[in-house]
Amino acid sequence: MAPGEISHRVATQFLHLYKRSNPRCNTDETYCETNKQHNENSREYYCSRNNPCTSGQTCYLSTPCPAHYSTGCTSNACYGQPCQNGGTCSLDSSVKGYNCRCISGYDQTSDCRNQINYCNSNPCQHGATCNSVLNGYTCTCPPGFNGRHCQNNIDECASSPCLHGTCVDRVNGYTCNCEPGYTGVNCQTDINECQSSPCIHGNCTDHVNMYTCDCFLGYTGSNCETDINECASSPCVHGTCVDEIARYRCVCEVLFIGINCEQFNPTYATTMALALIAIITTVLWAYIIWRKKRQEKSIPAPFPFEDKQLGQTKCTFRRNINMVHTIQQNPLAFVPGKMGQENVKFKNSVA
Q1: Nearest-CA neighbor of 89 among 55, 60, 54?
Q2: What is the spatial distance between Cα 123 and Cα 297, in angstroms, rounded to a whole number?
Q3: Are residues 12 and 106 in the same domain?
Q4: What pLDDT does residue 52 have?
């Protein structure tokens, strides 16, 4: 053997025991010889360039150190290091002639080249994303879920977000059923029942789910909508009540005065009595004058008659007027004529 060359048997043992390469063997001859490490990359390179092996044989580095690379052939299929990723090769009677015993997480059917895809069984729930990793899997949960398999719906109500209401858990959220008088996402806002100005004639005070009205004088009702009828108690004793805002007014009868027409009015009574006396006196005097004038009209007229104007009226005497006169001489008989228009004509008549 050349200096530094190792025997075929030793090279085969190294190949079998140290399946994976050590990059340091490519540059450090002493290290390679001392640690007897085999460089898999070098084996594949040299065997692909100069493969002396026939069908069914495996090419290997009979001398694995860089300074003395040399290839060899063997019928032992495990010398070709078919088991990857730390798998252990053992000969068997299969068509391949070997079997790989993989470390946990690798697929035996791929000679330990591929990781086992544990996501093929769809272990992640609720639409989560499965991530295959060595010897297992992880689940990336959608919002609102947690757990190894995203099987848990996160209870967003656990933190009691609804201040004045009942929390209802949802997927990735919650809703609040607010108590009467509250609103908002978390029932945090007291509804202002006074915002609509319900008190028509008064001041509104907001409370939880209600309001109260402080009515102005003269009004009542839950919304101060009713004008208080101050006349309902019939305050006017001798008069008519007129209802006004927060007060009343009495229109008193003739003989009464006062706020409630409760006082007799002596001044008015005296005035009325005097007026009545004056009226009676006036009527009486008018009657006396009228009677006196009537008596004056009933006195016999003087003779001879003349055309006289009595007052504003002219009188015309007609025939056959029965009047009795005491005449001492020359009795006369009436001659047709009109007094005031023509001279009255008289003639002597013998009784």
Answers
A1: 60
A2: 145
A3: yes
A4: 77
Q: What is the CATH number of the domain that holds 135?
A: 2.10.25.10
| CA–CA dist 100, 89 (Å, integer) | 5
142 and 170 part of one domain: no
Distance CA 215, CA 199 (A): 8
Q: What is the pLDDT of residues 163-187, one digit of tens each?
A: 999 999 999 999 999 999 999 999 9
Contact indicator for 100, 87 with CB cutoff of 8 Å: yes
Nearest to 208 by CA among 235, 238, 178, 228: 178
Phi, psi of 37, deg, nearest 5: -85, 140
pTM for the complete prediction? 0.47
Measured at the CA of 293, the angle between CA 290 and CA 296, to 5 degrees, comes to: 155
Report the number of distinct structural domains present in the chain: 6
Residue type, 268: Y
User: Pseudo-torsion of CA 234, 239, 243, 249, nearest 10°?
Assistant: -120
102 and 132 both lie in a single domain:
no
| Residue 95, pLDDT score | 83
Q: How far, in Å, CA of 79 to CA of 302, rounded?
A: 193
User: How deeply is 122 buried, as exposed, middle or buried, from its count of CB atoms within 10 A (0-12, 13-18, 19+)?
Assistant: exposed
Q: Which domain range does residue 318 map to? A: 314-351
Q: Please give the pLDDT value at position 331.
A: 45
- What CA–CA distance (Å, rounded) separates 238 from 258? 10
Q: Could you tell me the CA-to-CA distances from 264 to 231, 234, 255, 269 in Å, in that order?
A: 21, 18, 6, 9
Residue 101 is assigned to a structural domain of this protein: yes
Residues of the chain predicted below pLDDT 70:
1-22, 35-40, 299-351
Find where tokens 């030793």 sit.
Answer: 10
Q: Which amino acid is at 86?
A: G
Which tens digits make up the pLDDT trace of 218-239?
999 999 999 999 999 999 999 9
